[in-house]
Amino acid sequence: GFLHRYSHTRQTPEMAPLLKACPNYAIWDDHDFGPNDSDGSWVHADWSREAFKTFWSNPSYGLPESPRCVSTAFRFVDMEFFLLDNRTYRVNHQNKTNTPQVLGQAQIDWLIQALQKSRAPYKFVCIGGQVLNDAAVYENVSQFPSEREEILRRLAEEDIRGVVFLSGDRHTTELSEMELSNGRMVYDLTVSPLTSGPGHAREEKNSLRVDGTYVEQRNYAKLSFEGPRKDRSCTIEVKDTFGKTLWTRILRK
C-alpha cells in the first residue's frame, strides 16, 4: 500500500544525506496519487492524500477555493515556487461527456493571481506533466488545449515575467521555450528519470524543444542564480548519475 511504498523508499541509504541536508518539498503525479494515469475519479484519493501529507513536509496543503488538493507555494531566498496538483481535479482527456481538465478553474485562477502578485525574479511552477511541449501525446498538458491556451494567454495578458515550469513524467529530459504574444519568454524544464528506466521521445514533434537539451538517460538538474533581483540570471545544469554535466543553459526573461 501507500505507507509501505513510502516507508520502503525512505529506508534507501543513498537518500538519507539528501533528506537530511535541506527541506524536501514534493508534488505528486499519477503513481503517487493512484493507478497509472489516474484522475479525480480515483476512489481512494483520501488515502493517497493522507499518506502524501505524512511523508512530505510541504509548507501547507490545499488552496482557499480548492481545499482537497495538495497545492502550495514557498519562497527560497527571493525566488518563488508554486507546487500544483494535476490529479485531484483531473478529468481524463479521453472523456466525452465531462469537460477534460488538468488543474480545474479554481487552481488556474489561484496560480495566475499568485504569479501576478509575485515580485520574484523567477517564478517556478512545478507540475507533473509537460506544459509547453506542443506534442499532444501521453499526459502532456497539450492534450488539454483549452487549459493550456488559457494559462499561456493569461501569462501574456498579465505581463508576468520569469515563469519557468518544472515538470517530469516523461522519463526523458529536455528544455522547451516559448515566446508569448507580449514578447516575454516562458520555459518548461522537464527532468526525468532519476532512478527509473529512461524513455525514448527523440523523434517526438515538440517544436519548442531547445536544441541540444534532449537527454535519454538517468539525470538530474541543478539551478544556480546570480545578480541583483532586477537583473537575475538562472543557469540550468543537467548532470548524469556520476555528476558529469550533460548540458548548460542560461535563461533570459
Keywords:
253 residues, alpha/beta, Purple Acid Phosphatase, chain A, domain 2, 6-stranded mixed beta sheet
How big is the Rg? 18 Å
Largest sheet: 6 strands, mixed
Averaged pLDDT, please?
A: 96
Low-confidence stretches are none
The class by helix and strand makeup works out as: alpha/beta
CATH superfamily: Alkaline phosphatase D (PhoD)
H/E element sequence: HHHHEEHEHEEEEEE
Q: Can you offer a commentary on this structure?
A:
The chain has a single domain (25-217), classed as Alkaline phosphatase D (PhoD) (Purple Acid Phosphatase, chain A, domain 2). Helix content is 22%, strand content 21%. The mean pLDDT is 96. It is α/β, with parallel strands linked by helices and 253 residues long. The strands form two sheets. The chain has a six-stranded mixed beta sheet with strand order 1-2-3-4-6-5, with no helix packed on it. A three-stranded antiparallel beta sheet has the order 7-8-9, with no helix packed on it.
Reconstruct the topology from this structure:
Layout: H1 2-10, H2 16-21, H3 30-33, H4 45-55, E1 72-76, E2 79-83, H5 105-117, E3 123-126, H6 145-157, E4 163-167, E5 174-179, E6 185-190, E7 219-226, E8 233-240, E9 245-251
Parallel strand pairs: 2-3, 3-4, 4-6
Antiparallel strand pairs: 1-2, 5-6, 7-8, 8-9
Helix pairs in contact: 5-6
